[in-house]
UniProtKB/TrEMBL annotation:
Protein's name in the database: Uncharacterized protein
The organism's taxonomic lineage, starting at the top: Eukaryota, Viridiplantae, Chlorophyta, core chlorophytes, Chlorophyceae
Organism of derivation: Edaphochlamys debaryana
Amino acid sequence: MNERAVGKLEDVVRALSLAAADYLYSELKKQGCLAATRLASSALRDLVDGSVEELRVTQAPLLNPVRVPSLARWPRCHTVIVQPRFGSEPVDAAVLLQAPFLGQLESSRRRITCVRLELDRYPRTRPGSGDSGRLESALAVSPTVCSLAGWLPCLRELDLGCLDAEEWTCGGRAAALMHAALASLGSVESLALPSVALLPGIEALAGSLRRLSVGSRLVKYREGLDEEPADEDIESVRQLLGLEELSS
């Protein structure tokens, strides 16, 4: 493509309305050619980056503010989905959940309203590859969530509901500290927790919480993992006067 043609293409792309740009982005995404499109011209690169609303993190960037991709590159991104890529290397969910926000501008972090952890339980690898599809170490839930609360002042939704029983650790007092940290934001409306053991202190979120999911999504597929909340935890949930949806 000659320079004149590229110039005309860029003029057309930059003249697109937001709705038209989003439609073009969705079609390019369906075709699996976003990466190639970004390389075609600066206007197409800006169109692709400007239409991204969800960012998937599959591996941790180097823990150096200079090396972590700037969230400013995706000015409309509001959701970060952490989806570990299991393989021969250990997967540390705590690092994956926090690394994307290291060294980011506050203005960029304020745009992030949703963080969701997703674990692929059925990795497509050859037998004997050593890929178990599970975390190598248990996630320390409370300190990780407290850190996220510090990074993301406008967080509205946090989903850790995919964690299985052996994949997280958190004591009752630590759970209360976690809920207090989230409550200090005043914006958390939706929370998914892997276990009723993380309910202590959840009444701190009475001012904002609208949706609560409790219990690993694997529980219904396994025997002997059904959990019953303690009486005091039930009372804590009852204090969530604004709660509109409760599920497991």
